[in-house]
Amino acid sequence: MFKDIKGFLKKKEVKTSLCIAAVTLLCYLSSGSEGVTDENGVVYRDDYDGSKQSVYLEADIEGVGTETLFLDVKNRQYTDEECEAMHDECLPKIMDVMLNGNPSIEEVSGDLNFAECLSGYPFSFSWNVGSKGSFDSHGKLIAHEGGAVSVILAMTYGEWESEDIFEIHYEAAAYDDLQQVRDELITAVRESEEEDRTGEAVFLPPEIEGRRVTYREPATEKDPVIFLLGVAAMAFVFVGAQADRKNEEKKRRDKLIDEYPTVIMKMVMYLSSGMTIRNVWIRIYEDSLSGDKSNPIYDEMGITVNELKTGVSEAAAYKDFSKRTAVPAITRFTTLLTQNLKTGSTNLSKLLSGEAEDAFEERKRRARVKGEEAGTKLLLPMTLLMLVVMVIIMVPAFLSM
């Protein structure tokens, strides 16, 4: 018994499985979140640019017991004084970003950039333009004439906020006629939508600057992912069907090979009693009909019986049987039968007996192979069970240390 266990443990797959189990156990025991508190009740926050932590704690209360706590620990926050200092540092930088290449707020001839944030600073920016006809919400210059407008910048960080006002002097936007028509269309469409908010429909302007306008929805782009998924599904179905077909063919072939020794032994027994090959063939097929056992080899023999009854020669019928089964052992068997029909040899029973012995040896070999395959398939469940047992034994031991 110990030799069997030692031999089992020497197998490569067993060694690999044990290594995996050991590594898994070590990873499991060393896993867990890092400590965020010490014995003095100090919980450390993430830095300013960090994130919120969800912390589970167990508090041991003297004379009461243990209480489980859940705490959301937010990252560090800047003080109002720090925000004011950063505001003074950030303001000239955000002004440069806002100017977007324009010389100064006194000479704006192009688009501005109303950024929502600035790298290195925790503030959120929101912009408010005093005149709607000068710049849009993104800073694009849309004014048809030059002028001045107040732009209010609001910086916010948590509950802290500040406002800064810039007096922007701008020139008229550079428009060509076509761009002006496009801008007027956008303005007219917005006015049409806001004209009657209680109505059931929005009536879009039929013409702009004497130009007729027609409307249509843009063609939606076809998502190629759907097509690819369909092709992939078809491929999987095809591959799955091929695999199922191969599995069915393998099962049929295995059944033919497993039952072949029984058929050939019956053939030897009936031939030794003086029956002809034709009658023996029919007798074996009829015996299969009266029994409960079903096998593809008997179905193929039944087709051969029908061929013999319809006038097909024995040699041709046996040859067709060999082609349908497509098993080398059965091909040798039918070859012996057809040679006997041609030469009339008297030692057919002896030849078939040798073939039957070989067939039974092959059946034994196949049985051993199947047993080994079954043992290999059981290796993974056995490893998992062993891992579960190790966890059950070792985890309580570690926790009690």
Main sheet?
A: 3 strands, antiparallel
Average pLDDT value? 78
Order of helices and strands: HHEEHEEEHEEHHHHHHH
Distance linking N and C termini: 36 Å
| Strand content bin | 5-15%
Radius of gyration: 44 Å
Class derived from helix and strand content: alpha+beta
Q: Count of helical segments?
A: 11
Q: Helix content range of the residues, please?
A: 55-70%
- Which residues form runs of ≥5 with pLDDT under 50? none
| Dominant shape | elongated
| Widest sheet, order of strands | 3-4-5
- The count of DSSP E runs of length 2 or more, i.e. the number of strands, is 7
Describe the structure.
The protein has helices at 2-9, 12-30, 80-99, 177-195, 224-272, 277-290, 296-309, 314-325, 328-343, 348-377, 379-399; strands at 53-61, 65-73, 124-129, 147-157, 160-170, 207-208, 211-212. It is built from eleven helices and seven strands. Among the domains are: 48-174, no CATH class; 252-375, Up-down Bundle (Receptor-associated Protein), CATH 1.20.81. It has a three-stranded antiparallel β-sheet. Strands 1-2 form a two-stranded antiparallel sheet. The protein has a two-stranded antiparallel ribbon with strand order 6-7. A hairpin with a 2-residue loop joins strand 4 (147-157) and strand 5 (160-170). The longest helix has 49 residues, at 224-272. The protein has 401 residues and is α+β, with helices and mostly antiparallel strands. The two termini are 36 Å apart.
